[in-house]
């Protein structure tokens, strides 16, 4: 991961316009929890902001734009929560649906039986821990610790790791996310690979945008940067994304800006792009200024 904190997006719209001006189309990839939907205690209750749904719908209906959700949730789950995108990647990119056909990583498919055994064992072992919750997503599993009393979280981590070691051996691994432990196959595959696959099907000069809030989104930021636009939702901790916004409401403002301002840049043929002044003068338009972003919040 980059050691550089991302810059505040609203201060860098002219750079983003220049990045978009290099492309003939746009691929907009979006994480779900913490990006389109605010983080909530109960994962079942997570719902995208209406403004995000509307902005995604508008982008999806534009002929120059392809849209995708790239989520840690299982595919059926995330498709139920937000509709209308061109493609969906679930389980951190291990499964995919596009043009009506579903693809699953073959190694992940084989190891799903181990994930299932781990989830069952954890249901029993963590049963006495108040408010612990196990989400079996078939190809991966999630242990939720958001509502577990803080002093008990290290115990949950230890128990989870020991069960995964016992049942999964070197076939499974545990990683951390926002108040979750993610259990999945130990293979070098993540959201970044999913974004690569999506990009590979589009013209080479398509500009890729990725918006996400969590550690697993870093591989996707690495995939789209530096020719595309990586946007981290959250505070100023280091990230491979160049830009950051604070909240899902800010994501809606950015997506709206992309549709109303950013897309205009794509339409300019290279010969028509105004030459840059010698000393760059940042072109901030009234539409740029309307991008109202909220104030800082803590990452957790
Ligand atoms: O890649 P994402 O779409 O962001 O999915 C990552 C995980 O998101 C969900 O957990 C997170 O959101 C929950 C609801 O707001 C919250 O309670 C939890 O603490 C967060 O980590 C989802 O439940 C997981 O399956 C995803 O892996």
- Dominant shape: globular
Q: Low-confidence parts, pLDDT < 50 over ≥5 residues?
A: 269-281
Radius of gyration: 20 Å
**Architecture of the largest domain in CATH?**
3-Layer(aba) Sandwich
Function: Removes the phosphate from trehalose 6-phosphate to produce free trehalose.
EC number: 3.1.3.12
Family: Belongs to the trehalose phosphatase family.
Keywords: Hydrolase, Magnesium, Metal-binding
Describe the overall structure:
With 300 residues, the protein is α/β, with parallel strands linked by helices. The protein has two domains: 7-104 and 189-268, HAD superfamily/HAD-like (Rossmann fold, 3-Layer(aba) Sandwich), CATH 3.40.50.1000; 106-185, Alpha-Beta Plaits. It is 34% helix and 20% strand. Strands 1-13-12-11-2-3-4-5-6 form a nine-stranded mixed β-sheet, with helices on both faces. It has a four-stranded antiparallel β-sheet with strand order 7-8-10-9. The radius of gyration is 20 Å and the shape is globular. The chain starts with 6 loop residues before the first strand and ends in an 11-residue tail after the last helix. The model is unreliable at 269-281 (pLDDT under 50). The structure holds ligand L263DTV3.
